[in-house]
Specification:
The chain has 2 domains: about 210 residues, Rossmann fold (3-Layer(aba) Sandwich); about 90 residues, Tyrosyl-Transfer RNA Synthetase, CATH 1.10.240. The protein has a 3-stranded parallel beta sheet. The protein has a two-stranded parallel ribbon with strand order 4-5. Helix content is about 55%, strand content about 5%. The two termini are about 30 Å apart. The chain has 13 helices and 5 strands. Bound molecules: adenosine-5'-triphosphate (ATP) and L-tryptophanamide.
Length: about 325
């Protein structure tokens, strides 16, 4: 608890350009949570180097992501937006937790298996212990809730197991976090293969709408989205493409599926796709404008980075000191 509020932690990697899926599935929900929770949102750049990165590119993407957090509506006065690498306690706690996580547990992580098979030339131990660093992120702030997608639930389970194991040995040191799955329908699928989720690492750029896509590109991608030959806008199992477009439309317009289906009754896919495109443009355009404005204000962003890193450090150090004491590290001499 901080100031009588429960604590929330989440983060995103600065790898690849954010997609509409990242916005509707994560960022948009994050914005609504700041009144109820004390929120920490990290740009997890230490996680990013588990796969090879170009240094200049990583630095640029990390800054863009932090700026995008603000452009999407996260108020940096109310939410702690910071770079993971600016708070060294993440690495320090991760080391300690490495000594309490079992190889058997890490061997089961499906993301590791996936990524290892994609990067056979660089299966490094950072990739292997990725979930332990993630556990450190969460436990450092004594987070009560962690909004993540389904794909990250396995990592969150591991975090809970390690925290419980640690508490079992040393007493109540860590808050045990709960996962927080956003609203249903927030899983946005690929526009080209609607059985697969929309992902920033998809090689087919037509499959994803990027937050920075211009209106023409957004419209073109919507118009080219894979559908079916039923010629009927309805929310059916056998129409994954149309279902996905309906999900996007409803998330962008805050309409219910039922309302949307009624609206397009008797209309063709062409009209429907145009309306979806328009709804996406109307959501993304203000974010893009704000992003451009913010990007030109270097001093403002710098000041946020500095102040929020200090705030994050303060809370992180509190937990780290407690943990160091518990495991038997000598006290510092002042
Ligand atoms: P990558 O392709 O690099 O794995 P990603 O696009 O899948 O990336 P993540 O960085 O894994 O995105 O996720 C960032 C956040 O966005 C997570 O909270 C995740 O649940 C959410 N998210 C990612 N893709 C989608 C999607 N298609 N629909 C809804 N939410 C999503
Ligand atoms: N692994 C997550 C990003 C991430 C995270 C976290 C999410 C790193 N640390 C802590 C929630 C809490 C991902 O790839 N989406």
């Amino acid at each position: 608890m901080i100031d009588n509020k429960k604590v929330l932690f989440s983060g995103m990697q600065a790898t690849g350009d954010l997609t509409l899926g990242n916005y509707l599935g994560a960022l948009k929900n994050w914005v609504t949570l700041c009144d109820e929770y004390e929120c920490f949102y990290s740009v997890v750049d230490m996680h990013s180097i588990t796969v090879r990165q170009d240094p200049a590119e990583l630095r640029k993407r990390a800054r863009n992501l932090l700026t995008l957090y603000i452009a999407a509506g996260l108020d940096p006065e109310k939410n702690c937006l910071y770079y993971q690498s600016h708070v060294s306690a993440h690495a320090e706690l991760a080391w300690i937790l490495n000594c309490y996580a079992y190889m058997g547990e890490l061997n089961r992580m499906t993301q590791f298996k996936d990524k290892a098979s994609k990067h056979t030339e660089n299966i490094n131990t950072g990739l292997y212990t990725y979930p332990v660093l993630m556990a450190a992120d969460i436990l450092l702030y004594q987070a009560d809730v962690v909004p993540v997608g389904k794909d990250q639930m396995q990592h969150l389970e591991l975090c809970r197991d390690v925290a419980q194991r640690f508490n079992g040995i040393y007493g109540e040191v860590f808050t045990i976090p709960e996962g927080y799955l956003g609203k249903i329908g927030a899983k946005i699928m690929s526009l080209q293969e609607p059985e697969k989720k929309m992902s920033k690492s998809d090689e087919n750029t037509n499959a994803s709408i990027y937050l920075m896509d211009d209106p023409d590109t957004i419209m073109r991608k919507c118009k080219r989205a894979v559908t079916d030959s039923k010629a009927c806008v309805s929310y059916e199992e056998d129409q994954p493409g149309i279902r996905n477009l309906l999900d996007i439309y409803c998330a962008c317009t805050d309409k219910s599926t039922q309302e949307a289906v009624l609206e397009f009754e008797g209309k063709g896919y062409g009209d429907f796709k145009s309306a979806v495109g328009e709804s996406v443009i109307s959501v993304l355009l203000p974010i893009q404008t704000r992003f451009k404005e913010l990007s030109t204000d270097k001093a403002y962003i710098d000041q946020i980075i500095k102040a929020n890193a200090e705030k994050a450090n303060y809370y992180a150090q509190k937990t780290l000191r407690k943990v160091q004491k518990k495991v038997g590290f000598p006290e510092r001499i002042r």
